[in-house]
Please model this.
Amino acid sequence: MRIWVTGIGIVSPLARGARATMDRLIAGDRAFAPLSLFEIAGTRARIAAEVRDLSPEEVAPPGEAEGWSRTDAMAVISAREALAHAGIDPRATPVDLVVGGTTAGMFETEELLAWLSHDPSAIAPLKRMLSHPLSSTADHVRAAVGPFRRVRSVCSACSSGANAVLLGAAWLRAGLSTRVLAGGADGLCRLTYTGFGALAAVDPDPCRPFDRRRAGLNLGEAAAFLVLESEDAARARGAAPIVELRGWATGAEAHHITNPEREGRTAARVMRDALRCAALAPSDLDYVNAHGTATPLNDVMESAALRACLGTEVSRIAVSSSKGQIGHTLGAAGAVEAAITALAIARGVMPPTGGLEEVDPECQLLHLKEAREAPIRSAMSNSFGFGGTDSVLVFAQPERFPPPPGAGGAPQRRPVVVTAAATIGPLGVLSSRGGAAYLEPGPPPAEGPIAFNTGAHLDLARARRLDRAGRLTTAAVLTAISDAGLGGAAPVDAGASSGDPAADAAPSRTLPGAIVGASFGSVDASTAYMRRIYDKGAKYASPADFPNLVPSSPVGHASIYLGLRGPVFAMADLGATAEAAMVTAIELITAGEGEALAAGSVEEASPMIERCLGPICSEVVNCGVRSEGAAVLLFESAARVRERGGRPVAAVAWWNSWRGDGAGALGGAPAPAPLGSPAEVARAQPCVPAPAAVFVGRQEERIVACLRGSPWAEVPRSTLASRAGDHEGAGGFAAAAAVAALASGALASVLILGGAPDRGYAILLVAPGDA
Model:
């Protein structure tokens, strides 16, 4: 099955609209100007690539703009353009949605956060905070443009948009979707502007990617979406392709939270993986849209990686960076640059690198200082993010090349098993079988942070850069992979080179990875950071604190500490974040995009979440003690576990995700067999063996509604929040307890249900012998 791109939408600092943006890029126009959106005393830089005359009122329903953001506005406008370009109406045909980003409504909420830090008694459910969660952009795109069937929010810092496209491609290749709207959006805000300034990464003048005199990046803002369709679905409705999405890959450097590997080994590996996925050679490639940030370290690294990947062809293949014209648009960059790459192929024009005059000798490539007209058979788009998540997409002229191997015939879905679970919560650090403790009667957890001795589980010297969420995440993932006896994850010094010849040669899909999120990110740390900025000015922005404010930093830290070099990124979906991460891990493994992925969530004790974000965003009101904790499950392909001689503790029998009230969401789930029924009946489809139970993190009406009319409504139900804590991550603890119950033989089947307003997830686990 080929994957076609049939629609593209862009909102950029140069123009609204894909065609207009591309026209100005080709003309060599640059978007940098004095920043008008906000003022901050003491900043070294005063320019940015800003989208002018933009307001949430353009896209928000009447009277609702207070809870929408500029990021939402860009996302909605570009999503509408992409769908219109493709000729698709989501109301008439099923479409799935993936959005990558990092800032969401931070610009709209950061001043309020700083104010509330002065007067904690004023913390309350405030409507303006509705735009704060990372998942709010996807929610608002769905509200304004949808409906959409499956919706996910992805963060891997500056590669978020590319990983949104990658996830959509995985869904299509596995037959889980027929059409996906995938992209990214990020708006400018004070937090990122001062943060990159604190890292001394910003050039006060217009940036110069790959130039000998380059002095850093310029920040920008943008949004872009691509409509991805299976060739069969597009042909059935008479749609023509813009380009073909041929290949994709993502992998982690496991090196440093902000600095890339100088040698570019991981970037080169991921480029090779994407070309291998595309069934193309460097000789088939004509253009690379580089990540090209204009920072001293990135441009040298990427140049080395391109030379290593492309070999002798590197002198022939044209390279340019769009950041020299529109700035670094952070979480949107991977999607924006993917869209530019696709349009370059369609038009047969390669845009230039703005600001490049004198090429750095360490960055010698075939750089474009002016646009070039030429046929482009195939092209590569590179995206590299904080924490070292490198992602690469490969596009080609439609039907220029034979279909990639495995693209023909019915989609292949691989069986997925669970080999371990881990929780860090009120009852301590527990591995797979220990999760059963949360099913036992006992007192509720104590108020506030849990007791966690970092030194008992992590090397304090190596964990010095990790904040609390990073330490909880790292310890949880370490506990799970140790319990599973998983090889291939080697701890490395966070500041040292991570050159492992075996890992550098192995395809990223085969290496261990992690998908771990938090419902609202590091809210309290962001609040403290913004208070310093407002009270004292930009010079008090902490270069040590800023990287930890990126939503993907906890899982990035875990990757670095543990040497995880496979797919690594974060998910965010309010009170269903753990379940979203787990379902996404299952989908990636079943699609062949991963072999071993730790998945779950981390939630910190937080007055801001408990008294403001929880009630207004997640509708968490009148609940028990919040507490905090981290919970992960380790998912692996069944084939990998057999090959390494591992032992699964559970098998994934079925899963689903939905938007809306969940009515009928369990219609496709195998029913629990009646207790005491013959073994042949229990094994007959669509039944799973007894005894069975339903596990949920928190008791909510939406879960009860989902169960109505389902055979699963008749089985016992266990709720974990009273023991694990009544927080957004309780669903992760429910999943870990389910693994413990299956591993001990107490249950044969467990349906895990989790949800948040207008969304839900279900995972059906069975004892491994019954899979």
The CA atoms of residues 661 and 758 lie 6 Å apart. The first strand starts at residue 3 and ends at 11. Residues 488-498 have pLDDT under 50 and may be disordered. The radius of gyration is 24 Å.
